Model the fold of this input.
Amino acid sequence: MLTIRHATLADKPVAYEWLCCSDTTSLHLGPPDYPESPVPTREEFERDFEDLYFLPAGRRQGAVTIIERAGEPIGCLCYACFHLQPGAAELDIWLKERRLCGLGLGTEALRLLVEHLRRELGITRFLIRPSTRNTRAIRAYAKAGFVDRPEKIPALRSFLKEEFWDAYGGGDYGLEGTAVMTMEDEPRPQ
Ligand SMILES: CC(C)(COP(=O)(O)OP(=O)(O)OC[C@H]1O[C@@H](n2cnc3c(N)ncnc32)[C@H](O)[C@@H]1OP(=O)(O)O)[C@@H](O)C(=O)NCCC(=O)NCCS
Done:
């Protein structure tokens, strides 16, 4: 059975290991496939995933959660809201080993987090931004209900707060190399 739980500060070292030093790292970060998005150093991880993401006090702004299969931790799933319009969250996910990929676990975990955020924080709009070359992630997100938005800039503008556009508009792979995928509970105005 798959579950998610909020990470604590004790989980922070493994969250770093799984993101930056595992056999899934090269599937989404660093050369040869993703030279434009280098693997974060420990210091960069500390900066990007500050302690607040691991503490109850931060949960309205964002949090790291741990995915568990029958009680065994198998990866991380995060959300962040601080840079987005009210009612929106951006998600990110990484499993800790390749042998766990392709089994439907990432898709199921995303569904669990979306349900949790709807219920606990009233989030109704979800954003996720993989590399355009990460076909496995794109397929998993589509199965979880995310839709690719080829009109990237207007889609992103409807999510990001204006003051965060310069810092976060390009995503991890630059505007060109980043897919913009969204899931919105209300129909979008035409
Ligand atoms: C991205 C990730 C979370 C997806 O979770 P997952 O459990 O592997 O996803 P699923 O098994 O539900 O779905 C993967 C889909 O991609 C397909 N797939 C598998 N390997 C693939 C490959 N090399 N190329 C293209 N598609 C592939 C699978 O067939 C499956 O589709 P299907 O169910 O229609 O057959 C997980 O693979 C992962 O952690 N990858 C490494 C980190 C990463 O890339 N994170 C994304 C950052 S945005």
Notes: DSSP finds seven helices and seven strands in the chain. The two ends are 40 Å apart (CA to CA). Residues 24, 27-28, 92-95, 101-107, 130, 134-137, 139-140, 143 surround coenzyme A (CB under 6 Å).
